[in-house]
Amino acid sequence: MMTAMSKHCQVTGSRAGVGNSVSHSHRKTRRRFNVNLQRKTYWIPSLGRRVTLTVSARGIKTIDRRGIDSVIAELIQIGEIRP
What we know:
- With 83 residues, this protein is an alpha+beta fold.
- It has helices at 57-66, 68-78, and strands at 17-22, 28-33, 37-44, 49-56.
- The chain is elongated, with a radius of gyration of 16 Å.
- Residues 1-31 are annotated as: Disordered.
């Protein structure tokens, strides 16, 4: 059974922010600043399988910098994904 995934980055934890749209006349209406989320599939050599993550653009850069094995180990430890 597929569960609904919330709109947040699994690596950085960033979520949508809220603020105001400000018109030329400075009228303010509420709006959302959504996170640039992507669904990416990574091959994890230590697990011997693929893992699909919902990550932001910053999360992709974090994976590139730290390495997928390090990031996945942390996600397993905090319970974000199953081993």
